[in-house]
Amino acid sequence: MASEVVAKRYAQAAFELALEEGALEAWSDALARIAHFLSDGEAARALQNGRVPSEVKHALIDAGLRDLPRLPLNLAHLLVNKGRTDLAVSIAEQFSRLVEEHQGLARAKAITAVPLSETDLQALSARLREQTGRRVVLENDVDPSILGGVVVQIGDKLIDGSTRARLEALRQSLVGAVG
């Protein structure tokens, strides 16, 4: 959890720089490349190895990411200096979320007992758009344990309209009425 908070801080700083430069797409591409380079293969193992000298790590960054713009490249070097190369993927993901939010886009997950039809997905997406004021990209996951209804996760918000939740609320009411 602490690493997620740190990744959000790096992403927020990068986002603000990208916004100032008018370079959201360039930063997004650069962060994706950094994330891939810092988390994949031999380079990642070398960068995360405490016995590899810092100069070698920085030379590796310069060689592998030499065509990146100066500021994203500086971020890659900073992650090496701070020993946080493992956060690169999370930083890129958080940055993407900030860009989507800036563009008025929200991602949501609808969990249902059975798959939703395309018509139902569109209707739910439209309803969520009305509630949030954002264009909603909706993904459907199936979980038969919810029995019926829908549970929607949108950002940090959870909307539980499942049959299971309603039955649990009714059970709680009945238990409370007896006591």
Main sheet overview: 4 strands, mixed
How are the strands ordered across the major sheet? 2-1-3-4
> The CATH topology of the largest domain is what?
Peroxidase, domain 1
How many helices? The count is 8
CATH class value of the largest domain: Mainly Alpha
Q: Structural class of the secondary structure composition?
A: alpha+beta
Q: Report the uncertain regions.
A: none
Rounded radius of gyration (Å): 22 Å
Secondary structure: helix percent: 55-70%
Query: What is the H-and-E element order?
Result: HHHHHHEHEEEH
CATH architecture of the largest domain: Orthogonal Bundle
Q: What fraction of the residues are assigned to beta strands by DSSP?
A: 15-25%
Mean pLDDT: 90
Global geometry? elongated
Task: Report how far apart the termini are.
Answer: 40 Å
Domains (count): 2
Task: Describe the fold and architecture.
The protein has helices spanning about 1-20, 25-40, 40-50, 55-65, 70-80, 90-100, 120-130, 165-179, and strands at about 105-110, 135-140, 150-155, 155-160. The protein has about 180 residues and is of the alpha+beta class. The chain folds into 2 domains: about 1-100, Orthogonal Bundle (Peroxidase, domain 1), CATH 1.10.520; about 105-179, Glutaredoxin.
